[in-house]
Amino acid sequence: MAQATQLNILEPSFPIQVEHDRKRRQFTVRLNGCHDKAVLLYEYVGKRTVDLQHTEVPDAYRGRGIAKHLAKAALDFVVEEDLKAHLTCWYIQKYVKENPLPQYLEHLQP
C-alpha cells in the first residue's frame, strides 16, 4: 500500500514538496519514495549573490512541471533572503522569462 502512495506523488492533486538543504546548497523533490529525486543546485558567488547553476529532473519524470516547482522555490528563496541571483541554468532563465514577476526581476544580477 505504501508503494502505491509513493507512486501517486506526481498526480495533479498531490502537492509537489520542495525541500531546501542549505548545507548542500540544493533544492530537491523526492520522486517515487527516496530513490529518485529532482534537484536544483546553487552556489554563493559573493556575500549576497547566488548562482542558480543547474536543474535536473530524471528522464522518467520530465515534462510534468517538477522543474517549475524547483525554480519557483529557488527564486522565492532569493527574494526572501534579499539576495542577488545569477542565472547560469538555462531552465531558470526560461522560467523567469515565462514568469517575469517584479520581485524576481529586481533580484537578478545584471
Relevant terms:
110 residues; five-stranded mixed β-sheet; 4 helices
Structural features, described:
With 110 residues, this protein is an alpha+beta fold. It is built from four helices and five strands. It has helices at residues 2-7, 66-80, 90-98, 102-105; strands spanning 19-21, 26-31, 36-44, 49-56, 84-87. It has a five-stranded mixed β-sheet. The relative contact order is 0.16.
Summary of the model, kept short:
With 110 residues, the protein is an alpha+beta fold. It contains four helices and five strands. The model is unreliable at 1-10 (pLDDT under 50).
Please specify the SSE layout and strand pairing.
Layout: H1 2-7, E1 19-21, E2 26-31, E3 36-44, E4 49-56, H2 66-80, E5 84-87, H3 90-98, H4 102-105
Parallel strand pairs: 4-5
Antiparallel strand pairs: 1-2, 2-3, 3-4
Task: Order the strands across the largest sheet as they lie in space.
Answer: 1-2-3-4-5
Largest sheet: 5 strands, mixed
Q: Assess the beta-strand content as a share of residues.
A: 25-35%
- The quaternary state of the protein chains shown equals single chain
Helices, by number, come to 4
Q: What's the total count of β strands?
A: 5
User: Mean pLDDT, rounded to whole units?
Assistant: 88
- The structure class reads alpha+beta
- Residue stretches low in confidence (pLDDT < 50, at least 5 long) are 1-10
Order of helices and strands: HEEEEHEHH
